[in-house]
Amino acid sequence: MPDLERSLRAAPPHALLDVVRDGLTEGYGALSVRLLLVDYGMTVLQPVDTPGDATLALPLHDSAEGRTYGSQEPRENAVPHAGAVDHHLPVTVRGERLGVLSVRLPLERSSAEAVTALAHLAELLGHEILVAERDTDLYQRARRVTRLTLAAEMQWQLLPGRAFAQAEFEIGAQLEPAYSIHGDNFDWTSDASTLTLAVSNGMSEGIEASLLTNLTVNALRNARRAGTSIADQAALADQAVYAQHRGSLYVSSLLLSIDLDTGRAQAVDAGSPQLWRRRDRTVERIPLEAQLPLGMFEESDYRAQEWDLRPGDRLLVVSDGVYDAPSPLGETYGTRALMRAIQATGLLPAASVPGAVLRELSSYRGADTVDDALVLCLDWHGRQGAAGA
What's the pTM? Predict the structure, then answer.
């Protein structure tokens, strides 16, 4: 396996699967090796070596590979009459679920030691894919079942990922409609002391909305990387958007900052995204002071509100495309339905919650949405000895 690892790190970006396949064939007698990546809509797993062929996609919620993706645990299935075993391994990097590596081994080569080695290889492959995506479109193409709109392409390229995990927290987020999203976006970053998150919802539609959100996210990042507070981040992004659009377009945003040592949280509510908390069995919206959206007026002043997180708390941020979504009869999804969805997904990991809520929302709407919908879930674990309310 060390030789395979070295070969994988040295491989051309487009040839990662070829190197893995050759190495496992030689070292373990592998009969077949497939890499499947989850699509943007989180509905199917698609083979990397046949991008764009929807007939070869596997359903995420009704296949052995899909169950591996959902459980994030290695699974195996005996192949009848073939004297072989299919091993399915999650390809995940720091909580970001990329897909599944499926390896068929002869029965006599299938062992606990082999599974451990394959699981390690799948994790290494995930890291290499993230690096390789800088220099090849292969893995991006494999993630789409249909063409992205240009606005959606811009939004997906702007995102940090769809999940992230470390000892203190787990995050999951998803956007819909995945292939034609325009103005909704989320962003996050963490360092040794702080987790910072931002959810944004730009006005307008299509390219105009995407350009507006792109400006806002990069203005927030620029301010954040200068070491400013979230209140100052909001103020500086507000100035950038106003300077460009003079109030004709603006962006609804919610900014969060969490101290990783204490669990002390700060928030700036600058628009429509709502913040909800599930603590034990209680679901409630966190009351925040409504402040002006970014870019609505010149030089707006922003203030952060503070409260404490407890280990076990779950936070959800939802855009207006969720809580204002209409049913076929014109009734909005609203507070009660959202609270039920938050309770119903209480046992799911953070990375699975956004997709589950959005599927329930889709069933409620009964038709494709014309508005963006965003769900971000944060599970707070805290550090040993962290303070809480």
Answer: 0.94
